[in-house]
Amino acid sequence: MRELLVDFITSLDGYASAEGWPGWWGLEGPEYLAWLGEQPEVTYLMGSNTYRLMSGFAAGETPAGTDGFTTDEEASVDGLTQASKVVFSSSLEEPLTWANTTLVRDPAVEVVRAMKEDGSGLLSTIGSISLCRSLLRAGLVDRFRVVMFPVITGATGAERIYDGYPDVALEMTDSRTFDGRSQLVEYRPSVLEHPPLHPSA
Question: Domain named Bacterial bifunctional deaminase-reductase C-terminal: which ranges (predicted)?
Fold first, then answer.
């Protein structure tokens, strides 16, 4: 069975991006970039908002509030362009302009459940906060990985990641520090129906 990874890059206070900040908050270092280059072949899953944003970058649009891409950001976008991608949307129309992308209109939870049971290789989300939340609620997520960058973006942060999430117990399976500043934590998630009982109860 294929594994499903929910993969987030966040500020310390749990934002997915921040207005006026560059990609990776400008703090990507050589260890982190080398680790990104070592990732296995993956099929990326996303919603329509992430597709519009990322396909725009692939077409040459620059992030709002910035003058352009760094060399590392360009390489990251190029890598995503080459990868297999699935976008779940009822609003996008074919043909899609971003190479190697398949449009799916059926419910994401049902489709991802079938994808996990049929085929090989890793499935991973990219961005798409509401999609990730739906897949987690459905119990489909095998690994939950977060790389936290050492910034707090309380004034400029956008896209609070964990709002609307259920309660989730997390069993740590991996951790690592990149470049002496960015922290990776990886967990096996278990969605809770209610908070755990106190041991003395």
Answer: 4-180
The domain locations on the chain are 4-191
Residue 59's CB is within 10 A of a number of other CB atoms, namely 11
Closest to 43 measured CA to CA, from 88, 89, 106: 88
The SS3 assignment for 157 reads strand
* 4-191, CATH topology level: Dihydrofolate Reductase, subunit A (3.40.430)
pLDDT (0 to 100) of residue 169 = 95
Query: Please, what's the b/e burial string for 110-134 (b: 16 or more CB within 10 A of its CB; e: otherwise)?
Result: eebbebeeeeeebbbbbbbbebbbb
| Cα–Cα distance measured from residue 104 to residue 77, given in angstroms and rounded to the nearest whole number | 22
Confidence of residue 190 (pLDDT cuts 50, 70, 90): very high
Sign of CA dihedral 68, 70, 75, 79: negative
